[in-house]
Amino acid sequence: MSESAHDAVVVGYDGSPSARRAAHWAAREAATRRRRLVIAHAFRWPLTELTQLRTEMVVLSEDPFRGEYQRLVDELVAECQPLAGGNEVQGAVITGDPVDVLDRLGSSANLLVLGSSGHGAVHQVLLGSTSAELVRSTNAPVVVVRETDQPARRRRVVVGVDGSATSTRAVDFAYDFATRHNADLVAVHAWSDLPLEALGAVSERGVNWSVVTDQAKAVLSEALAGHSARYPDVRVQPLVTMSKPVEALLAQGDNADLVVVGSHGRGAVRRMLLGSVSQAVLHYAKCPVAVLRPE
Questions:
Q1: What is the pLDDT of residue 192?
Q2: What is the pLDDT of residue 249?
Q3: Cα end-to-end span (Å), the chain
Protein backbone atom coordinates (compact mmCIF):
# COMPACT_ATOMS: atom_id res chain seq x y z
CA MET A 1 0.00 0.00 0.00
CA SER A 2 1.03 3.62 -0.31
CA GLU A 3 2.10 5.54 2.76
CA SER A 4 -1.03 7.67 2.65
CA ALA A 5 -3.06 7.48 5.84
CA HIS A 6 -5.28 10.48 5.21
CA ASP A 7 -8.03 10.72 7.84
CA ALA A 8 -7.38 7.15 9.01
CA VAL A 9 -6.75 5.77 12.46
CA VAL A 10 -3.08 4.73 12.40
CA VAL A 11 -1.52 2.37 14.92
CA GLY A 12 2.16 1.56 15.19
CA TYR A 13 3.01 -2.13 15.52
CA ASP A 14 6.37 -3.68 16.40
CA GLY A 15 5.29 -7.18 17.43
CA SER A 16 5.25 -6.44 21.17
CA PRO A 17 2.26 -7.31 23.40
CA SER A 18 1.67 -3.64 24.20
CA ALA A 19 1.54 -2.77 20.50
CA ARG A 20 -0.92 -5.62 19.86
CA ARG A 21 -3.20 -4.32 22.62
CA ALA A 22 -2.91 -0.86 21.12
CA ALA A 23 -3.96 -2.24 17.72
CA HIS A 24 -7.06 -3.90 19.19
CA TRP A 25 -7.89 -0.63 20.99
CA ALA A 26 -7.40 1.29 17.75
CA ALA A 27 -9.66 -1.08 15.80
CA ARG A 28 -12.50 -0.58 18.25
CA GLU A 29 -11.92 3.16 18.21
CA ALA A 30 -11.89 3.19 14.39
CA ALA A 31 -15.30 1.50 14.48
CA THR A 32 -16.82 4.36 16.48
CA ARG A 33 -15.08 6.99 14.33
CA ARG A 34 -16.10 5.25 11.11
CA ARG A 35 -12.56 5.48 9.83
CA ARG A 36 -10.31 2.94 8.18
CA LEU A 37 -7.51 1.47 10.27
CA VAL A 38 -3.89 1.40 9.13
CA ILE A 39 -1.54 -0.94 11.01
CA ALA A 40 1.99 0.24 10.31
CA HIS A 41 5.22 -1.61 10.99
CA ALA A 42 8.43 0.33 10.31
CA PHE A 43 11.85 -1.27 10.26
CA ARG A 44 15.33 0.11 9.75
CA TRP A 45 17.44 -1.28 6.94
CA PRO A 46 20.21 -2.19 6.94
CA LEU A 47 19.95 -3.42 10.52
CA THR A 48 22.05 -1.25 12.81
CA GLU A 49 23.25 -4.30 14.72
CA LEU A 50 24.73 -5.81 11.54
CA THR A 51 26.49 -2.66 10.39
CA GLN A 52 28.26 -2.38 13.76
CA LEU A 53 29.73 -5.89 13.66
CA ARG A 54 33.50 -5.96 13.13
CA THR A 55 33.39 -8.88 10.75
CA GLU A 56 33.65 -9.35 7.03
CA MET A 57 30.66 -7.62 5.49
CA VAL A 58 27.93 -10.02 4.46
CA VAL A 59 25.41 -8.69 1.97
CA LEU A 60 21.94 -9.58 3.18
CA SER A 61 18.66 -9.09 1.41
CA GLU A 62 15.89 -7.32 3.28
CA ASP A 63 13.29 -9.56 1.59
CA PRO A 64 13.22 -12.32 4.26
CA PHE A 65 12.90 -9.73 6.99
CA ARG A 66 10.19 -7.84 5.14
CA GLY A 67 8.34 -11.08 4.49
CA GLU A 68 8.35 -12.02 8.18
CA TYR A 69 7.22 -8.54 9.22
CA GLN A 70 4.46 -8.67 6.62
CA ARG A 71 3.28 -12.01 7.98
CA LEU A 72 3.03 -10.57 11.49
CA VAL A 73 1.14 -7.52 10.25
CA ASP A 74 -1.22 -9.66 8.15
CA GLU A 75 -2.04 -11.77 11.21
CA LEU A 76 -2.87 -8.64 13.19
CA VAL A 77 -4.99 -7.26 10.36
CA ALA A 78 -7.05 -10.46 10.49
CA GLU A 79 -7.44 -10.08 14.29
CA CYS A 80 -8.53 -6.46 14.03
CA GLN A 81 -10.95 -6.81 11.13
CA PRO A 82 -13.86 -8.14 13.28
CA LEU A 83 -13.27 -5.32 15.80
CA ALA A 84 -13.30 -2.49 13.27
CA GLY A 85 -17.04 -2.35 12.67
CA GLY A 86 -16.90 -3.11 8.96
CA ASN A 87 -14.32 -0.40 8.25
CA GLU A 88 -11.34 -1.21 6.09
CA VAL A 89 -8.24 -2.51 7.87
CA GLN A 90 -4.92 -2.21 6.05
CA GLY A 91 -1.41 -3.34 6.91
CA ALA A 92 1.77 -1.53 5.90
CA VAL A 93 5.40 -2.62 6.23
CA ILE A 94 7.60 0.40 5.57
CA THR A 95 11.37 0.76 5.56
CA GLY A 96 12.60 3.60 7.72
CA ASP A 97 13.06 4.84 11.25
CA PRO A 98 9.86 4.08 13.21
CA VAL A 99 9.57 7.63 14.56
CA ASP A 100 10.01 9.17 11.10
CA VAL A 101 7.58 6.75 9.45
CA LEU A 102 4.83 7.12 12.04
CA ASP A 103 5.30 10.88 12.20
CA ARG A 104 4.84 11.02 8.43
CA LEU A 105 1.72 8.86 8.56
CA GLY A 106 0.40 10.82 11.53
CA SER A 107 0.70 14.13 9.72
CA SER A 108 -2.54 13.43 7.85
CA ALA A 109 -4.15 10.85 10.15
CA ASN A 110 -7.36 11.25 12.10
CA LEU A 111 -5.69 9.64 15.12
CA LEU A 112 -2.35 8.01 15.93
CA VAL A 113 -2.39 5.15 18.45
CA LEU A 114 0.71 3.74 20.13
CA GLY A 115 1.59 1.15 22.74
CA SER A 116 3.21 2.35 25.94
CA SER A 117 6.51 0.59 25.21
CA GLY A 118 8.12 -1.56 22.58
CA HIS A 119 10.98 -4.02 22.18
CA GLY A 120 14.29 -3.79 23.96
CA ALA A 121 15.37 -1.76 26.97
CA VAL A 122 12.32 0.50 26.77
CA HIS A 123 10.38 -2.26 28.53
CA GLN A 124 12.13 -1.04 31.65
CA VAL A 125 10.48 2.40 31.51
CA LEU A 126 6.84 3.37 31.64
CA LEU A 127 6.77 5.08 28.25
CA GLY A 128 8.62 3.76 25.22
CA SER A 129 11.07 6.01 23.39
CA THR A 130 9.12 5.89 20.12
CA SER A 131 5.91 6.94 21.86
CA ALA A 132 7.70 9.68 23.77
CA GLU A 133 9.15 11.11 20.56
CA LEU A 134 5.90 11.01 18.62
CA VAL A 135 3.74 12.77 21.20
CA ARG A 136 6.20 15.68 20.91
CA SER A 137 6.11 15.95 17.13
CA THR A 138 3.01 14.49 15.48
CA ASN A 139 0.24 16.80 14.31
CA ALA A 140 -2.55 14.28 14.84
CA PRO A 141 -4.01 13.54 18.27
CA VAL A 142 -1.94 10.75 19.85
CA VAL A 143 -3.29 8.09 22.19
CA VAL A 144 -0.81 6.02 24.17
CA VAL A 145 -2.55 2.79 25.23
CA ARG A 146 -1.64 1.04 28.45
CA GLU A 147 -2.91 -2.23 29.95
CA THR A 148 -6.15 -2.50 27.97
CA ASP A 149 -7.55 -3.14 24.52
CA GLN A 150 -11.00 -1.73 25.34
CA PRO A 151 -11.67 1.99 24.69
CA ALA A 152 -14.57 2.25 27.14
CA ARG A 153 -14.94 -0.31 29.91
CA ARG A 154 -15.65 2.16 32.71
CA ARG A 155 -17.58 4.75 30.66
CA ARG A 156 -15.55 7.59 32.19
CA VAL A 157 -13.28 10.16 30.51
CA VAL A 158 -11.09 12.72 32.29
CA VAL A 159 -9.85 15.93 30.67
CA GLY A 160 -7.44 18.53 32.01
CA VAL A 161 -8.59 22.14 31.61
CA ASP A 162 -6.38 25.20 32.13
CA GLY A 163 -7.74 27.75 29.65
CA SER A 164 -4.89 27.38 27.13
CA ALA A 165 -5.37 26.81 23.39
CA THR A 166 -4.25 23.19 23.60
CA SER A 167 -6.61 22.68 26.53
CA THR A 168 -9.45 23.79 24.26
CA ARG A 169 -8.49 21.11 21.74
CA ALA A 170 -8.32 18.57 24.56
CA VAL A 171 -11.85 19.47 25.71
CA ASP A 172 -13.20 19.08 22.16
CA PHE A 173 -11.50 15.69 21.83
CA ALA A 174 -12.78 14.52 25.23
CA TYR A 175 -16.39 15.46 24.51
CA ASP A 176 -16.26 13.71 21.13
CA PHE A 177 -14.80 10.55 22.69
CA ALA A 178 -17.34 10.59 25.52
CA THR A 179 -20.36 10.93 23.25
CA ARG A 180 -19.22 8.12 20.95
CA HIS A 181 -18.61 5.77 23.90
CA ASN A 182 -21.59 6.78 26.04
CA ALA A 183 -19.20 7.87 28.78
CA ASP A 184 -19.34 10.47 31.54
CA LEU A 185 -16.83 13.32 31.41
CA VAL A 186 -14.85 14.69 34.36
CA ALA A 187 -13.39 18.13 33.56
CA VAL A 188 -10.53 18.89 35.96
CA HIS A 189 -9.17 22.37 36.61
CA ALA A 190 -6.32 22.12 39.12
CA TRP A 191 -5.33 25.73 39.32
CA SER A 192 -2.27 25.51 41.57
CA ASP A 193 1.22 24.55 40.40
CA LEU A 194 2.58 25.42 43.84
CA PRO A 195 3.62 22.86 46.47
CA LEU A 196 1.27 22.58 49.43
CA GLU A 197 3.76 24.24 51.77
CA ALA A 198 3.79 27.30 49.51
CA LEU A 199 0.00 27.40 49.55
CA GLY A 200 0.14 27.53 53.33
CA ALA A 201 2.48 30.50 53.23
CA VAL A 202 0.23 32.28 50.73
CA SER A 203 -2.85 31.65 52.87
CA GLU A 204 -1.19 33.41 55.81
CA ARG A 205 -1.07 36.59 53.74
CA GLY A 206 -4.82 36.88 53.70
CA VAL A 207 -5.66 35.51 50.27
CA ASN A 208 -9.41 35.36 49.72
CA TRP A 209 -9.78 31.71 48.77
CA SER A 210 -13.44 32.15 47.97
CA VAL A 211 -12.55 34.66 45.24
CA VAL A 212 -9.74 32.43 43.95
CA THR A 213 -12.08 29.45 43.78
CA ASP A 214 -14.75 31.47 41.98
CA GLN A 215 -12.18 32.57 39.40
CA ALA A 216 -11.07 28.98 38.89
CA LYS A 217 -14.66 27.89 38.41
CA ALA A 218 -15.12 30.68 35.86
CA VAL A 219 -12.13 29.41 33.85
CA LEU A 220 -13.59 25.92 33.82
CA SER A 221 -17.08 27.13 32.96
CA GLU A 222 -15.77 29.19 30.05
CA ALA A 223 -13.78 26.25 28.72
CA LEU A 224 -16.88 24.04 28.73
CA ALA A 225 -19.25 26.68 27.39
CA GLY A 226 -21.10 25.66 24.24
CA HIS A 227 -20.27 22.00 24.49
CA SER A 228 -23.47 21.07 26.31
CA ALA A 229 -25.50 22.15 23.29
CA ARG A 230 -23.26 20.23 20.89
CA TYR A 231 -23.07 17.13 23.10
CA PRO A 232 -26.33 17.05 25.08
CA ASP A 233 -25.97 13.36 25.91
CA VAL A 234 -22.65 13.76 27.77
CA ARG A 235 -22.92 14.04 31.55
CA VAL A 236 -20.22 16.38 32.82
CA GLN A 237 -18.71 16.64 36.29
CA PRO A 238 -16.74 19.91 36.64
CA LEU A 239 -14.01 19.59 39.26
CA VAL A 240 -12.00 22.51 40.65
CA THR A 241 -9.22 21.46 42.99
CA MET A 242 -6.27 22.99 44.80
CA SER A 243 -4.23 19.88 44.05
CA LYS A 244 -1.33 20.05 41.64
CA PRO A 245 -2.50 19.28 38.06
CA VAL A 246 -0.58 16.01 37.73
CA GLU A 247 -1.83 14.69 41.05
CA ALA A 248 -5.43 15.62 40.26
CA LEU A 249 -5.41 14.06 36.78
CA LEU A 250 -3.72 10.85 37.93
CA ALA A 251 -6.16 10.47 40.83
CA GLN A 252 -9.17 10.92 38.56
CA GLY A 253 -7.61 8.69 35.90
CA ASP A 254 -7.33 5.72 38.25
CA ASN A 255 -10.84 4.59 37.28
CA ALA A 256 -11.14 6.18 33.84
CA ASP A 257 -11.02 4.84 30.30
CA LEU A 258 -9.03 7.79 29.00
CA VAL A 259 -7.22 10.88 30.28
CA VAL A 260 -7.02 13.75 27.78
CA VAL A 261 -4.42 16.52 28.08
CA GLY A 262 -2.96 19.29 25.97
CA SER A 263 0.72 18.96 25.13
CA HIS A 264 1.45 22.46 26.44
CA GLY A 265 -0.25 24.29 29.26
CA ARG A 266 -0.16 27.74 30.68
CA GLY A 267 2.94 29.52 31.85
CA ALA A 268 6.52 28.41 31.41
CA VAL A 269 5.66 24.92 30.16
CA ARG A 270 4.55 26.43 26.86
CA ARG A 271 8.22 26.86 26.03
CA MET A 272 8.94 23.17 26.43
CA LEU A 273 8.67 20.52 23.71
CA LEU A 274 6.23 18.64 25.90
CA GLY A 275 4.59 20.25 28.90
CA SER A 276 5.50 18.94 32.33
CA VAL A 277 1.90 17.96 33.13
CA SER A 278 1.31 15.98 29.94
CA GLN A 279 4.71 14.30 30.22
CA ALA A 280 4.06 13.16 33.80
CA VAL A 281 0.55 11.94 32.99
CA LEU A 282 1.88 9.96 30.02
CA HIS A 283 4.45 8.24 32.20
CA TYR A 284 2.35 7.43 35.23
CA ALA A 285 -1.33 7.15 34.25
CA LYS A 286 -2.80 3.66 34.59
CA CYS A 287 -5.17 4.13 31.64
CA PRO A 288 -4.71 5.27 28.02
CA VAL A 289 -3.74 8.93 27.58
CA ALA A 290 -4.62 11.22 24.66
CA VAL A 291 -2.32 14.18 23.95
CA LEU A 292 -3.40 17.10 21.77
CA ARG A 293 -0.82 19.47 20.29
CA PRO A 294 -1.39 23.08 19.17
CA GLU A 295 -2.94 23.49 15.75
A1: 64
A2: 95
A3: 28
Pairing verdict, β 289-292 and 142-145: antiparallel
Residues 45-79: tens digit of each pLDDT: 776 555 555 555 555 677 888 889 999 999 999 99
Number of domains in the chain: 2
Q: How far apart are CA 269 and CA 166, in angstroms?
A: 12
Same domain, 79 and 184: no
Q: In sequence order, which residues have a C-beta less than 8 Å from that of residue 146 and are 6 or more positions away?
A: 18, 116, 285, 286, 287, 288, 289
HEC string for 124-143: HCCCCHHHHHHHHHCCCCEE
* pTM (whole model) above 0.70: yes
Amino acid 200 reads G
pLDDT single digits (tens) 88-97: 999 999 999 9
CATH number at residue 226: 3.40.50.12370
Nearest Cα residue to 167 out of 292, 75, 71: 292
Residues 121, 190, single domain; the answer is no
- The boundaries of the domain holding residue 285 are 156-292
